[in-house]
Specification:
- The protein has 13 helices and 2 strands; from the N terminus they run H-H-H-E-E-H-H-H-H-H-H-H-H-H-H.
- The chain has 396 residues and is mainly α.
- Strands 1-2 form a two-stranded antiparallel sheet.
- Strand 1 and strand 2 form a beta hairpin.
- It starts with a helix and ends with a helix.
- The protein binds protoporphyrin IX containing FE.
- Protoporphyrin IX containing FE binds next to helix 1, helix 2, helix 11 and helix 13.
Length: 396
């Protein structure tokens, strides 16, 4: 492997270390539900520290490293030195935002006589890095003929930028003292949903298409079109049904049907060309579950039922852990060889176990079956992915 590319493999391990830290923070949250949190930590702040580090440090850094490592094959140019700085800074800023979120969440603290929100500042630095990333990517790939992987990455990065407007919008509402519940929820979901469903899902699918370019047929293109038309409005599906004006909810529902259906087309196109034992199959099964859930979410009565059954955390982890994280590991193995993903099978089992133990925490099972045991099982299973990730780091 050329020296210029091994640096991105190092970044991959850096991202995996942040996955272990963010996962341990999630496990701390679960243990806290049984025994209380140490050092006066608050549940909301621990949750923010966990989710932000997973988004900014784990998945975003791993995606950037994997995309950049693949670019030379498409552009016929070796990657520019800027990339190393960008990936290093993105890793550092993700970690920098983690500690303020853990201790203060979005709160302001007194610093040199003025009150500042360190978590928000850390998050803003991360957003600036995404703009640099987008700029470097589009200048590096300018004039290069678009294959399926590049098409998916182009759109993934456009949605990454669009999602950041939700984060700025939320900050603007705070500055303008706007407290309207619909506007507040809509800006948060604009950020969270376009980031996960736009940036993560499309970029990971692009990585799968690097491995299976022959999946680029009429069905895949139809699926891609459906997803792109639906995505800009599906963030409204994340907002509580009763807060969304009914006409908008209808538009969001149509968007959800397009995205859910489009994803199923893309999955089918990939599945057909994959070898029977491909490591991508399990991530794709999780993506299919997400697509079906999205179709359900598009129908308001089903969405209301999902809200009352407390399915949000299960849904998020099916997507983010089951598809995105396992997909990233599959792509790392293909890009840098088996030594980059030693322990992948263990991680897959740990992820499945974690997701299964989230089911009793919802109202999907009869209430008689809920109890302290469900919290204990979830706390135990939460340790699995971070422990396996640490093992992967030690065995590299
Ligand atoms: C590695 C194993 C993981 C563990 C142990 C874990 C654990 C948790 C826990 C305990 C919560 C809070 C649940 C609650 O509010 O009841 C949570 C929420 C969340 N997690 Fe994870 N998680 C993991 C992986 C991931 C990954 C890979 C991502 C993203 C790439 C992620 C993103 C989120 C998000 C977005 C939330 C919701 C945050 C919010 O509502 O503010 N998690 N997770």
């Amino acid at each position: 492997m050329p020296e210029s590319l091994t640096v991105f493999r190092k970044a991959w391990f850096g991202a995996l270390a942040l996955f272990a830290l963010a996962g341990s923070t999630g496990a701390l949250y679960r243990a806290g539900m049984l025994f209380g949190l140490p050092f006066g930590l608050q549940f909301g702040n621990v949750r923010h520290a966990h989710s932000h580090l997973m988004y900014f440090g784990w998945a975003t850094v791993a995606l950037i490293a994997l995309i950049v490592a693949r670019l030379p094959a498409f552009t016929q140019r070796s990657p520019r030195r800027h990339w190393r700085w960008l990936i290093g800074a993105t890793l550092a800023f993700a970690l920098l935002a983690y500690f303020p979120f853990l201790f203060f969440g979005y709160e302001t603290v007194e610093l040199n006589g003025s009150r500042l929100p360190p978590g928000v500042i850390g998050a803003s630095l991360n957003i600036l890095m995404w703009y640099v990333f987008a700029w470097l990517y589009f200048t590096e790939t300018r004039g290069v003929a678009r294959n399926a992987a590049l098409r998916f990455w182009d759109w993934a990065i456009i949605f990454l930028i669009l999602s950041s407007f939700g984060a700025w919008g939320r900050a603007l509402l705070v500055a303008l003292h706007v407290t309207d519940p619909f506007m507040t929820a809509a800006t948060v979901d604009l950020f969270l949903d376009l980031f996960s469903d736009g940036w993560f899902v499309l970029a990971v699918l692009g990585l799968a298409l690097v491995e299976f370019p022959q999946a680029d047929d009429a069905q895949l293109r139809r699926g891609q079109r459906f997803i792109l038309i639906g995505l800009p409005v599906t963030f409204l599906l994340g907002v509580q049904v009763e807060l969304v004006p009914s006409a908008l909810r209808l538009v969001a529902g149509v968007g959800g049907i397009l995205v859910g259906g489009g994803l199923l087309f893309v999955i089918r196109a990939l599945w057909r060309v994959m070898p029977r034992a491909s490591v991508w199959k399990i991530p794709l099964v999780f993506l299919a579950l997400k697509a079906l859930a999205e179709l359900g979410l598009s129908v308001p009565p089903l969405a209301v039922w999902g809200e009352s059954a407390g399915l949000r955390i299960l849904y998020l982890h099916i997507l983010l852990l089951g598809f995105v994280s396992l997909g990233l590991v599959a792509a790392a193995e293909f890009t840098w060889g088996a030594a980059s993903a030693r322990g992948r099978v263990w991680l897959t089992f740990a992820v499945i176990a974690l997701i299964v133990t989230l089911i009793p925490l919802t109202a999907l099972l009869p209430t008689a079956l809920n109890g302290r045991w469900a919290l204990e099982m979830a706390a135990l299973a939460a340790l699995g992915p971070p422990v396996v990730a640490l093992g992967m780091l030690l065995r590299r």
